[in-house]
Amino acid sequence: MVDVLVIGGGNAALCAALMAREAGASVLLLESAPPEWRGGNSQHTRNLRCMHDAPQDVLIDAYPEEEYWQDLLKVTGGLTNEHLARLTIRASSDCRDWMRRHGVHFQPPLSGALHVARTNAFFMGGGKALVNAYYRSAEKLGIQIRYNATVNRLDIQDGRFVAAYAGKERIEARTCVLAAGGFESNRKWLREAWGQNADGEWPADNFLIRGTAFNKGVLLKHMLDEHGADSIGDATQAHMVAIDARAPLYDGGICTRIDCVSLGVVVNKQARRFYDEGEDFWPKRYAIWGRLVAQQPGQTGYSIIDAKAIGRFMPPVFPGVKADSLSELARKLGLDETTFMQTLNDYNAACRTGTFDHTVLDDCHTEGVLPAKTHWARPLDTAPFYGYALKPGITFTYLGLKVNDQAAVHFGGQPSHNLFVAGEMMAGNVLGKGYTAGVGMSIGTAFGRIAGTQAAQAAVNQGARLAAA
User: Fold this and answer.
1) What digits encode the pLDDT tens for the residues 205-231?
2) Is there a single domain that holds both residue 388 and residue 403?
3) 49-82 burial: b if 16+ Cβ within 10 Å, else e
4) Which of 332, 364, 393 is the last residue of a domain?
5) How many domains does the chain have?
6) What pLDDT score was predicted for residue 110?
């Protein structure tokens, strides 16, 4: 019998497997995807949000615990467990040396992401390189890895893990770590969670999935419905980004994100603005825009910029619709020209341009227009003009399993002694809503490492009890 069974194949699962193996446990990892699609959403990541009290190689200045906590508190609106959040934050300060030992390399941010040079450490080669490095290390350490191994149910008795079923195969283990992702690629579950809106639309039908097609939430639903595991979070809350409407249904990743929102305006299908585009720095706001667009008619928005914005944001993979005038742009985007021009003229007239600086919360704002734009408000008056159609792009869901600081799954308020959870399946403990760049990887890394360590220790304890018996 294997000591530790890890179910999942992304960052959190790999961190758990590696830590358990380093602690001396035998480990079997089950990845539902084939080798070429391994890694879950982690293959699409770019960076890790890191606490640090002084400059560190690729990280400039300092990003102390309290500032990190305040950033997280702000974006979640207080929907977070402070104890677990601070545990995540502190763990981010000392994990990178361990990551390097397993082959992960870091680099300074590229020009389009300089605003997070102080807070986020970027992976050289991106998330795919990180995932590949961890798999190489796992293989060298003797961790057993099986692909195309979808686990659909567990045998749990009185809160104790006994076995997992991959199809008809029963796999026993002394302990288990669940790290199989959320339910973001389960259209049926998303539809149930979001329901119909006042216009009779099913918003989830228009969602694109930024990441893997393999995160169906099978184990999460099984744990909640069949075993009554304690839950955390709201099924409609998620890391959800406004992405290019031309993106593929799955695995579009970072290159489909539209990052020029704060440099212009966003309108809906009715050609009206609906939210403050300059509310805060983009890394703290990009993940609310998917939800905002999801609440608009047809789950569609349009990001509008002029020539002044070019070169100030990470260019997406597809070029925007280009026009020599705003009225021409409205026609090309299929928007009502009269309403569009009224919206843009009202916005332009309301701009109070001070000293524009996209790296700070500047004094360029609007007056006398709703919604207001509080920063980086400049008239859109310089041709050519560009428009990007937007759709909600869901990254991962926040409904998950409730945990303590040992990453234990809970049943009726009591922690399991041999069943642990990490990554998206428990991220809702820290992320009740909202997001800030890189924190998902911080959560997955912290709780993956904790879960692996705890699982290995629990396996040792169980082995000792059996030997004594």
Assistant:
1) 999 999 999 999 999 999 999 999 999
2) no
3) bbbbeeebebbeeebeeeebbebbeebbeebbbe
4) 393
5) 2
6) 77
